[in-house]
Specification:
alpha/beta, Rossmann fold, Four Helix Bundle (Hemerythrin (Met), subunit A), 3 domains, five-stranded parallel β-sheet, four-stranded antiparallel β-sheet, 16 strands, about 15% strand, elongated, Cys-tRNA-ligase
Length: about 475
């Protein structure tokens, strides 16, 4: 597999540190509000990469952190006259609701919170101070970027460019404009913890370095997030971690492009964002996941409800293909394969090969989805009621296997009344023709979908469980 490494600006063959295990750290949300579509993109993209690694047989240690202490959290708590902890708890709970809708694999995701690692953060900063990379000014501790010879290597800028092009906080305490806070002195009304430098709280960048080291090790395989995090957040993580540990922080840096609205980055600060919760009121969130994966992760996405509607129509076509194959599975028979049947099986394998090849090429989910559409179109044309069961099962299993990697086509569908009536008529026809095996299959299929049949003198009646 080849992945585009932001650090080297090239596609590189992916080689994990451990041949059987992959360590991944994805920068998660600051939990002071509902996540928006821009937040959802890295969550969906890198969850899909994790799914693909697991499909290939790797054990994946996967972290998405929660930033639960920062200026935005404090501002929100003050506005609502509550505590930062209450704000964090509330929106972490809401996060998991949205995560379930987006089909994120939360059962195998580690979610550390910054406030759970205060003692680790303090020890980390002490280590930097002892090595001469950090300095204390009246209870505020800063990282000295001039001590890091290759500071700027991720964003590919030198110190002068960073000073000129970045929004650098004006602070007379700092030795250099690009120095950044590791520990912030206590202010009235803010949460604080005891430390060797007095009461205070951690800066933003330090938490990810500390939690990655604590939970995954000094060097990890992949660090990922949105491209807006390259500088200063990820640049500063590299500076902290590599200065303390004397080792590379991450071997591969992956960044997804932004979600735009009218050509402008979607963000809460720009007041042009749509929350995932808002989208869920109009669309199943599987549609949003499909929309996100329909573009290559390094290409910007322009968001609109019209484009999401188009994604819904595309996903519906895949579901229709799935339903057609499920129906054919119920009526197809075990028969010997003809030469043409064997060709169909080989063609199905080629669609799978295209899907895998696309995923291997820097997680090209857009082309992988195209392979699924081609598979469904091919199945609709070449597989019918006369096809042997082996062929139908091959197409169905391949569709389910590959769509599972993308995290789609797994929702339990609500069967509609018209479909129920159609299946009952088909079952009655099978009974008249004494095809009791097919009749029983249809009954069982309906039962799996929550529909119970009752054969009465007045005909077959049905009810939902």
């Amino acid at each position: 597999m080849r992945l585009y490494n932001t650090l080297t600006r090239t596609k590189e063959e992916f080689k994990p540190i451990n041949p059987n295990k992959i360590t991944m750290y994805v920068c998660g949300p600051t939990v002071y509000n509902y996540i928006h579509v821009g937040n959802a993109r890295p969550l969906v993209v890198f969850d899909t990469l994790r799914r693909y690694f697991e499909y290939k047989g790797y054990d994946v240690d996967y972290i998405v952190n929660f930033t639960d202490i920062d200026d935005k959290m404090i501002k929100k708590a003050n506005e609502e006259e509550t505590t930062v902890r209450e704000i964090a708890d509330r929106f972490i709970k809401e996060y998991f609701i949205d995560a379930e809708g987006l089909s994120l694999k939360e059962e195998t995701t580690i979610h550390p919170r910054a406030t759970e690692h205060i003692s680790d953060i303090i020890e980390f900063i002490k280590g930097l101070e002892e090595k001469g990379y950090a300095y204390n000014v009246n209870g505020n501790v800063y990282f000295d970027t001039t001590k890091m010879k290759d500071y700027g290597k991720l964003s590919k800028k030198n110190i002068e460019e960073l000073i000129a092009g970045a929004r650098i906080e004006v602070n007379q305490e700092k030795r250099n404009p690009t120095d950044f806070a590791l520990w912030k002195k206590e202010k009235l009304g803010e949460p604080s913890w005891d430390s060797p430098w007095g009461k205070g709280r951690p800066g933003w960048h330090i938490e990810c370095s500390v939690m990655a080291k604590k939970l995954l090790g000094d060097t990890i395989d992949i660090h990922a997030g949105g491209e807006d995090l390259q500088f200063p957040h990820h640049e500063n993580e590299i500076a902290q971690s590599e200065s303390l540990n004397g080792k590379p922080f991450a071997n591969y840096w992956l960044h997804n492009a932004m979600v735009n609205v009218d050509g402008q980055k979607m963000s809460k600060s720009n007041l042009n964002f749509f929350t995932v919760r808002e989208i869920s009121r109009e669309f199943d969130l599987e549609v949003l996941r499909f929309f996100i994966l329909s573009a290559h992760y390094r290409s910007p996405i322009n968001f609109s409800k019209e484009l999401v509607e188009q994604a819904k129509n595309g996903l519906d076509r895949l579901y229709n293909g799935k339903r057609n194959l499920e129906h054919l599975l119920g009526i197809s028979k075990d028969e010997e394969l003809s030469d043409n049947d064997k060709k169909v099986i080989n063609d199905i394998d080629r669609f799978k090969e295209k899907f895998i090849s696309s995923m291997e090429d820097d997680l090209n989910t857009a082309d992988a989805i195209s392979a699924l559409f081609e598979l469904v179109r091919y199945a609709n044309t070449n597989i019918n009621t006369e096809s042997p069961k082996e062929i139908v099962k091959k197409a169905y299993d391949t569709l389910i296997e590959l769509s599972g990697i993308l995290g789609i086509l797994s929702k339990k569908e609500e069967i509609v009344d018209e479909e129920i009536i159609k299946l009952i008529e088909e079952r009655n026809r099978a009974r008249r023709e004494r095809n009791y095996q097919l009749a029983d299959k249809i009954r069982d299929e309906l039962k799996e979908k929550g529909i119970i049949l009752e054969d009465t003198k007045e005909g077959t009646k049905w009810r939902r469980i």
